[in-house]
Structures are given as structure tokens and as C-alpha cells.
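Homework help board

Subject: predicted structure for assignment chain

Our instructor gave us this sequence and asked us to write out the predicted structure in C-alpha cell form, then describe one feature. I got the C-alpha cells but I'm not sure how to describe them. Can anyone check?
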Amino acid sequence: MKILELKHVHKTFNANTINERKALIDIQLEMKEGDFITVIGGNGAGKSTMLNAIAGVWPIDSGSIQIADENVTGLPDYKRAHLIGRVFQDPMLGSAPTMQIDENLALAARRGKTRSLKWGVNKKEKEEYIERLKILGLGLEHHLTQKVGLLSGGQRQALTLLMASLQKPKLLLLDEHTAALDPQTAKKVLEITRQIVSDNHLTAMMVTHNMKDAIATGNRLIMMHQGRIIYEVRDEEKKNITVDDLMRKFVEASGEEFSDDQSLLTK
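My C-alpha cell output:
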């Protein structure tokens, strides 16, 4: 089943001004159910712009976006939110800091559903949340009533990841979700990411600057440069590719040397 289809997507910021910037140029991309794509590229390549276009954060100039069997091209973000789970770079986003862990999970579980005036987390829900939190391996299942704002960045990002996947969205978008964490915590959150995506058979797209993580994660990798997709590798070929291979492919596909700015693609 086709989960995502981008057809000839264009996006320009500040059109017809001195600050005009073509952020996406004729993007064409398909994702099938179960695909896990990692997206790499230097600053300004269009990685986060593509994710924001898919999520509906801002409208595209032309082209079309389809998620599952729905054409969402002209829909704002809140009208396509039922199809998408999302985790941001900032661990402070995606959860409510003044609410408890179980209350945050309840909000995520009830997202998009009809709600009554009755509020509270019942016993059955708590039991389910405890089992799901155990997957994270962080001991949060013993602290359901703790305020989320008191958690560490890594704990909070792992919880946000769990919340984003709770309803098994059609598409999970991960926008450099480990970039703000220290290396050890980032490694743990990435391990949790792989497990949650695999266990729930999710279709996912992850933007990252880290080429090693991009190679080691998922079944497909795409490289972007100046608003275009310039290279893709998948499946067995992806498993055997190296960081040096990717850097060489960048030079071949872009026709440019690997500049300091592009070296933000960390090894």
C-alpha cells in the first residue's frame, strides 16, 4: 500500500523579493507501507521544509501531497493530524510539561477522538501505559504521576516518541529528534525509535545530519541539496554503503565540493 506520494512539489519563500529562496524544487517521492526513510543534506537543503510541507505547517506552491488514500494538498496541519505522528528536534515540544506522564499519554491516545466532559485516566488505561512505557527501558512506568517538565531531555523525547506512535499513525515524521541530545542519550533514543517503528510496523521518515545514523537506520536513504532530491539508496545497497561513499555521491550528484556548511552532515 502506498502511504505517501509527493508529486512535483514546489515551495518558495519570500517570492518576488530580494530574499526569494526556492526551498523545494519538483520533489517527487513515494513511500510504501513499512518504509523507513532517512533524509540527509546540509543546511538549507530542504529537509525540514519537506517534512513541514507533508505535515501541512505551510502550503506548497504547486504539486500534490497524498497520505494513504487522502489528498491532503490544500489541508492545514490540524486537518491532516489524524494521519501523522511527529517528533521535533526540541525535547520541550510535543508534550505538556505541567501535566503528568499518564495524562500526556491519555491526551495522545484520545487525539482526534470524541471527548466527553469526564476527565481522568482509568485503571485499564494506566495498565496499558505501564506496559508501553516499559518498552522505553527508562523506568518511567514507575513514575506515572510525575510532571513531564521534570524529566530529562532524553526521557521527554522518548516519551514524545511513544506519544506520537500511540495511535499508530499512517506516517511518523522525525525532524532531527536526537540532535539536541548528548551523544549517549541520542544513541538510546535512536534505539528506541527503531524498536517502536519495527514493533508497530510504522512508516517513518527521519531527518538527520548524522550520516552514520542515516545509514544504520531504515531501509531507504535520500540526500537533498538546494531543494532537490539528488540521490537515493535503498535495501541491500544501503546496508553496504559507507560515509565516504555518501560524501562522494554528494559531489557527483551536486557537482559541488563538500563545503564547510555541508559538513554539518556529521560523520
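Reply (TA_rk): Your C-alpha cells look well-formed. For the description, you could write something like this. The first strand starts at residue 2 and ends at 13. That's the kind of observation they're looking for.
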